UniProtKB/TrEMBL annotation:
Record InterPro entries: Flavoprotein-like_sf (IPR029039), FMN_Rdtase-like_dom (IPR005025), NAD(P)H-dep_reductase (IPR050712)
Source species of the chain: Parasphingorhabdus cellanae
Pfam families referenced in this protein's UniProt entry, alphabetically: FMN_red (PF03358)
Gene3D superfamilies: 3.40.50.360
Residues annotated as transmembrane: none
Name this protein carries in UniProt: NAD(P)H-dependent oxidoreductase
Domain spans labelled NADPH-dependent FMN reductase-like: 10-150
Length: 194
């Protein structure tokens, strides 16, 4: 949503139960590119994902983490979504977080309508990266978002991530590029709502 300043808000959503996973490290690298380009960013990663109950499982409503996620989605000018490729598709942990976007169904901006969404997949092999990336694109389309032209598929079986650094410069370049595409798309949103 438009804010008083011209600083786009980019939400990074994804990871695994491990805060040092290749998925979360890749997401953090992409978010840093957005922050370096002037965005306000937030990483909704491992600890927050693990604090989310199964969507709509609590009759009392959303917990504080769920409310924070929904508000971050509402504020977002762009999203970078990252998932491990588990058995050829998006992980249950990340899918549960995506399900919380249903809370925006009655909003003026429904779901991710008009938002650029960058996609990152990490897996221990190439087959799972391709099928998971395709599944994520389908999910983003169903939520009315605009997947960026580049989706990053990373074969992390060689242990290329360590201490927040990726040893593969080609992967680093792809992570920078997907963040740049989200940033460019986030500035176009002002024309979509007029």
């Amino acid at each position: 949503m438009a804010k008083n300043d011209d600083k786009p808000f980019i939400l990074g959503l994804g990871g695994t139960t491990n805060p040092f996973s290749s998925t979360e490290q890749a997401l953090a690298i992409a978010l840093k590119t957005a922050a370096d380009a002037g965005a306000e960013t937030e990483l909704f990663g491992s600890a927050k994902l693990c604090a989310l109950p199964h969507y709509r499982s609590d009759p009392a409503g959303l917990n504080e983490t769920g409310k924070a996620l929904v508000e971050a989605v509402r504020r977002a000018d762009g999203i970078i979504l990252a998932s491990p490729g588990y058995h050829g598709t998006i992980s249950g942990l990340v899918k549960n977080a995506v399900d919380y976007i249903e809370e925006t169904a009655g909003d003026e901006r429904v779901y991710l309508d008009g938002l650029p969404v960058g996609l990152i997949v990490t897996a221990y092999g190439w087959q799972a990266t391709g099928s998971t990336l395709a599944a994520m694109r389908s999910i983003v389309h169903a939520l009315r978002g605009w997947p960026t032209p580049l989706g990053v598929g990373i074969n992390a079986s060689g242990g290329i991530f360590k201490d927040g650094v990726c040893a593969d410069e080609a992967v680093n370049e792809q992570l920078r590029l997907v963040a740049q595409q989200v940033m460019r798309g986030s500035h176009r949103r002002q024309y979509l709502t007029q």
